[in-house]
Design brief:
By secondary structure, the chain is mainly alpha-helical. It has one domain: Growth Hormone, Chain: A (Up-down Bundle), CATH 1.20.1250.20. 74% of the residues lie in helices and 1% in strands. The protein has a two-stranded antiparallel ribbon. A hairpin with a 2-residue loop joins β1 and β2. The chain is globular and about 70 Å long. The protein binds beta-D-glucopyranose. The site of beta-D-glucopyranose has 15 residues, from α9, α17, α21 and α22. It is a multi-pass membrane protein.
Length: 568
């Protein structure tokens, strides 16, 4: 028997209808204790500049679209309405309601959606590093075009180019980080990407606060701000190695071994190397992830890949991320105060994201989802009530009494923090960690596309909805938050500490899914899974390694499930 085939059979074991890799857990415990080394830290730093860029793109437009110089140049109608007529003719809620203005913000995400789907091809065939390089180049071009824009088409081309950057980066960077990270740091690193995103948002808001006081060209500086992380990503990607997984997938075995030894800081990487090799072999056997995910037995995975990113967006978060300065100005704050309020919101967001980074693996996803959901509902209802009662913008004076304005800011911060410790990071983590290998790339692709589509839709629609629904828009978001909280409570099993390869069993044990899908869930494909240390993307959590010591034999899924339940 060849070494490879003996490895494969040693790595699999039949339990109930499912073949699992029994030795996988044992082996991960035998990995040498890798230490963080400077090389790995540098790599993670460079790669997370992808998150900074994503954040900059989200956070920068709100401030820029309140700049009169910017509006006068590209959106003279809005400028006339806001600065000349002072929005006096009709409702203050409608001051910024302009489809083109919204397109400036949202065009990036529709480009990102398409680019993200296209990027699955270079990610696989050219490698993660090359895809990040393309992303860096597109970001640089986009930063140049938007900062130097002379007319609207040039501006929108710049946003589209940034969108291509976001699509490529969001496809390749999380994958890169997950693969380059030692297995026990994978879940933690996944959330660091979100942390970098929030830092990027805050940085953009701070830059806006500084530059938008500069007459004429201050907004150009804000938009040029994307160039710094873009350059870091571009030059960094030139210098970085590709991941061992991607190198092996493309047949560069020696180089893959060299890179693995270097990022682990030791030559003692044989076991992990053979794990990655097996994972690669298995991944190559999965020919139709897109067909798999539409089969009835994968319905829960499909539903989650669609509903979680959808719900994440209809919390209304991006109405605040994109348009906070516009909102504060609409409610009567002056330029400086509205930008300062926005910065306060940004700081709160970064701090609250830390809660998820530190505690998602300890408190569990459910606790964060539910507490975050309830917090958002309360905050949005109070914001709606305050605006309804204290703001006369629809009919007269558009300034709010000070105490009420402070109240709005406070509850806006509460809303953002509820999001930041729950749906923000978990909205990306959970859809990726519940996918089995058979559907993983398709599931991840769907989740990214749905997220970007609804980000686009919210960006495009919010100002018009604010104009039409006034304070009622926040009640609509609150209703969605209620629905999504109930949805998580009823349909999402707790995934904390459950190894990715055992996630499939969760649906079978879940009362609602068992009731809805019955027999279909029993039809879990009997496949040879690679060892746990080497699974493709977005590892579930750092708890993975100690979640299942010894799979219990022959009791079927229930018995097997008990093991991880006891362990988490
Ligand atoms: C969301 C973005 C949002 C950001 C705010 C991300 O998880 O996908 O749409 O703007 O969080 O931090």
């Amino acid at each position: 028997m060849s070494t490879e085939s003996s490895l494969t059979s040693a790595h699999t074991r039949q339990i109930g209808g499912l073949a699992v890799n029994a030795l996988g857990n044992a082996e991960i415990l035998q990995y040498p204790k890798y230490r963080l080394n400077l090389y790995l830290v540098t790599i993670c730093f460079v790669a997370s500049s992808g998150g900074l860029l994503f954040g900059h793109d989200i956070g920068v437009t709100g401030g820029v679209t309140t700049s009169n110089d910017f509006l006068a140049l590209f959106f003279p109608d809005v400028h006339h309405h806001v600065a000349v007529e002072q929005g006096a003719a009709d409702s203050a809620y409608c001051k910024y309601n302009n489809q083109l203005l919204q397109l400036f913000t949202s065009s990036l995400f529709i480009a990102g959606l398409l680019a993200g789907l296209v990027a699955t091809v270079p990610t696989r065939h050219l490698g993660r590093r090359a895809t990040m390089l393309i992303a860096g180049a597109a970001f640089l071009l986009g930063a140049g075009l938007t900062a130097g824009a002379q007319n609207l088409p040039m501006l929108v081309c710049g946003r589209v180019s940034l969108g291509v950057g976001v699509g490529f980066a969001n496809q390749a960077v999380p994958l890169y980080l997950s693969e380059i990270a030692p297995p026990l740091m994978r879940g933690f690193l996944n959330q660091l990407f979100q942390l970098a995103t929030t830092v990027g948002i805050l940085a953009a808001q701070l830059i806006n606060y500084g530059t938008l006081r500069i007459p004429d060209w201050g907004w150009r500086l804000s938009l040029a701000g994307a160039a710094a992380p873009a350059l870091l990503l571009f030059l960094g990607s030139l210098a970085l190695p590709d991941t061992p997984n991607s190198l092996l997938e493309r047949g560069h075995e020696e180089e893959a071994h060299r890179v693995l030894a270097r990022v682990r800081g030791t030559q003692d990487v044989g076991l992990e190397f053979s794990d990655i090799k097996l994972a690669g072999q298995y991944a190559r056997q999965v020919k139709h992830p897109w067909r798999n995910i539409f089969r009835p037995q994968y319905r829960p995975e499909l539903v989650m890949a669609i509903m979680i990113p959808f719900f994440q967006q209809v919390t209304g978060i991006n109405s605040v991320m994109f348009y906070a300065p516009v909102l504060f100005k609409t409610l009567g704050s002056d330029d400086a105060a509205s930008l300062l309020n926005t910065v306060i919101v940004g700081v709160v967001m970064v701090l609250a994201t830390l809660i998820a980074v530190l505690f998602a693996d300890r408190w569990g996803r459910h606790a964060l989802f539910l507490s975050g959901g309830i917090t958002m509902v309360v905050a949005e209802v109070v914001v709606a009530a305050l605006i309804a009662v204290e703001f006369r913008g629809a009919t007269g004076d558009a300034a709010m009494p000070k105490a009420a304005a402070v109240g709005v800011l406070f509850f806006m911060c509460l809303f953002v923090s509820g999001f930041a410790w729950s749906w923000g990071p978990l909205g990306w983590l959970v859809p990726s960690e519940i996918q089995p290998l058979e559907t993983r790339s398709a599931g991840q692709g769907i989740a990214v596309a749905v997220n970007f589509f609804f980000t686009f839709a919210m960006g495009q629609a919010f100002l018009s909805m604010l104009c039409g629904m006034q304070w009622g828009i926040f009640l609509l978001f609150a209703v969605f938050c209620v629905i999504m909280t109930v949805f998580v409570w009823v349909f999402l099993p707790e995934t904390k500490g459950v190894p990715i390869e055992e996630m499939r069993l969760l649906w079978r044990q879940h009362p609602e899914w068992r009731r809805i899908l019955g027999k279909e869930l029993g039809a879990i494909a009997a496949v040879a899974l690679p060892t746990k240390g080497a699974s493709g993307i977005n590892g579930a959590s750092g708890v993975k390694a100690n979640a299942v010591e010894e799979p219990q034999e022959a009791n079927g899924h229930e018995g097997y499930g008990k093991v991880w339940k006891a362990a988490v």
